[in-house]
Q: What sequence folds into this?
């Protein structure tokens, strides 16, 4: 199994990064031969989507459409293509995923999806270009807002879950909202992240 961990935090070694590591440990506890790659989005040149729609309108039969922007996403797309399992980790900023995670999600939407789906009467919704099935888990952290008030502060999990499903053909098998970390401390969530990783494996 190829595991790709995607970290959308600008701060290495802090809460999000630590909990992603614990999830990776959980995966390896059940699948010790798993090939793991950890990707810090902040380390890569990921430019904003230009809304040119070249990827959306591509008729390619490949599992990913070309993007007109030549930047770090080229190599990242190859990592995503090789993945069987994904860990998404991001803090919530103003209730949403970080800017770098949002930019990443925008850039994979139509490169990995094609507009052939239908929801109710709406045509042109994204469906995966590839039939390769993947699994995913999502780790979201908040420094202040406790889990009790998650519904007011976490639009990130739903967005990541939907994008993983619609673009990457990935089924989210679990999610962790690690809230109020400034008071509880990140260690409070270590076991939850570890067990989430085990579930992914």
A:
């Amino acid at each position: 199994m190829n595991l790709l961990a995607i970290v959308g935090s600008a701060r290495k070694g802090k809460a999000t990064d630590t909990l992603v590591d614990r999830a990776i440990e959980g995966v390896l506890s059940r699948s010790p031969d798993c090939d793991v790659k950890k990707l810090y989005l902040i380390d890569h040149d990921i430019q904003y989507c230009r809304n040119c729609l070249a990827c959306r309108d591509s008729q390619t039969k490949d599992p990913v459409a070309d993007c007109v922007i030549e930047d770090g996403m080229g190599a990242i797309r190859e990592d995503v293509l090789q993945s069987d399992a994904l860990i998404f980790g991001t803090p919530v900023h103003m209730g949403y995923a970080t800017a770098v995670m949002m930019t990443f999600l925008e850039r994979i939407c139509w490169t990995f999806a094609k507009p052939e789906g239908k929801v109710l009467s709406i045509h042109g919704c994204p469906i995966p270009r590839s039939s390769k099935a993947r699994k995913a888990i999502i780790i979201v952290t908040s420094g202040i807002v406790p889990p009790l008030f998650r519904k007011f502060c976490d639009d990130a999990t739903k967005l990541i879950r939907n994008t993983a499903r619609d673009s990457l053909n990935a089924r989210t098998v679990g999610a962790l909202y690690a809230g109020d970390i400034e008071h509880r401390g990140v260690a409070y969530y270590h076991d939850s992240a570890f067990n989430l990783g085990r579930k992914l494996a």
